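User: Quick sanity check before I run a bigger batch. Here is a single chain. Can you write out its predicted 3D structure?
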Amino acid sequence: MEINVLQQDKNKLKFEIVGEDHTLCNLLRKELWENSNVNVAGYSLEHPVVSNPVFVIESKKDPKKILLNTINSINKKLVDLKKEAGKL
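Assistant: Done. Predicted structure follows.
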């Protein structure tokens, strides 16, 4: 997976996620909205076959830190899910 930063300011981060689709982006968007410091979290995907999603995060604090914390939160939830699935 490759991430291309398109714009990075104090309170805004715009990036492209190469090779991904709605599955990852919806998960990331939903989790970002759980953070009270996030003002805007969304993405656009022109066409799932020929384009890459472009994500925008606008926040009260450093959007890069918020993104990294969000990814860590998602990872923890997935580890917990894997443990639970192992009990089946």
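Helices lie at 22-32, 63-86.

User: Great, the batch can go ahead then.
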